[in-house]
Amino acid sequence: MNVLIIEDEKPSARRLQRMLTTLDVKAEQMIHSVAEAIEWFSNNPHPDLIFLDIQLSDGLSFEIFETVTVESAIIFTTAFDEYALQAFKLNSIDYLLKPIDAHELETAVKKYKNLKAPAKKVQLDFEDIKKLLVNPVEREYKKRFTTRIGQHIKMIPVDEIECFYSENKGTYAHTVDGRDYLLDTTLEQLEAELEPQAFFRISRKFYVNIKAIRDIISYTNSRLQLKLNSFKAQDVIVARERVKDFKVWLE
């Protein structure tokens, strides 16, 4: 299998390359920009499979396909929210949400192998995907969560939640008054329920409310440490692979 990685963050590209190696998939070629990709595709045989980041340093990766015709199968690696993922599903395109999970990567590779016969070749409609990225469908997000306290059910308005975090296989909401409530959900389920402009998943362990961020500090290994208004139980760290998207989200 001839595999190409297009990813502007070199540490993320190398991490994906190592993860693929554990699946006996070699990705010897890595490209880091739209311009580099256009030149490469114009002068090299196209690969069987591309792992493609959507947002590259010099533009959206879809610009590549406006210049050259690429017939390779594609698996997106993306930090975009579920708006875009709806389009990927409609176009039978697989995707991996960053930070990439090893099990999800294995599942995506297996899906490619099952679909790689010419009769099952995926037809991509990049224009529809671009439209959905730029003009996402309006949708309703959760306004409140509930939790059981003894014999009572307490309602927690979303705007009173500083962060969501996982601990000991449970998911908790930390509120502005400094209290923690166990919820019957997971961080993965929250991805489709939280307003993306208000909440950001900074790591596998934390979702933070932008209004709760009191300070942002440079941390080891190119990461960031957040100081929230009331949450002090543990360090709140932005994972290295999420730092770039986190900075974009802040703007």
Plain-language structure description:
This protein is an alpha/beta fold and 251 residues long. Helices cover 29% and strands 30% of the residues. The chain has helices at 10-21, 34-43, 62-67, 82-90, 102-115, 126-134, 187-190, 243-250; strands at residues 3-6, 29-31, 49-53, 55-56, 59-60, 73-78, 94-97, 144-149, 152-157, 161-167, 170-175, 180-183, 199-201, 206-209, 213-218, 224-228, 236-238. The strands form 5 sheets. A 5-stranded parallel beta sheet has the order 2-1-3-6-7, sandwiched between helices. A 5-stranded antiparallel beta sheet has the order 12-11-10-14-13, with no helix packed on it. Strands 15-16-17 form a 3-stranded antiparallel beta sheet, with no helix packed on it. Helix 4 packs antiparallel against helix 6 (126-134). Mean pLDDT is 85; it is low at 118-122.
In short:
This protein is an alpha/beta fold and 251 residues long.
Fold topology:
Blueprint: E1 3-6, H1 10-21, E2 29-31, H2 34-43, E3 49-53, E4 55-56, E5 59-60, H3 62-67, E6 73-78, H4 82-90, E7 94-97, H5 102-115, H6 126-134, E8 144-149, E9 152-157, E10 161-167, E11 170-175, E12 180-183, H7 187-190, E13 199-201, E14 206-209, E15 213-218, E16 224-228, E17 236-238, H8 243-250
Parallel strand pairs: 1-2, 1-3, 3-6, 6-7
Antiparallel strand pairs: 4-5, 8-9, 10-11, 10-14, 11-12, 13-14, 15-16, 16-17
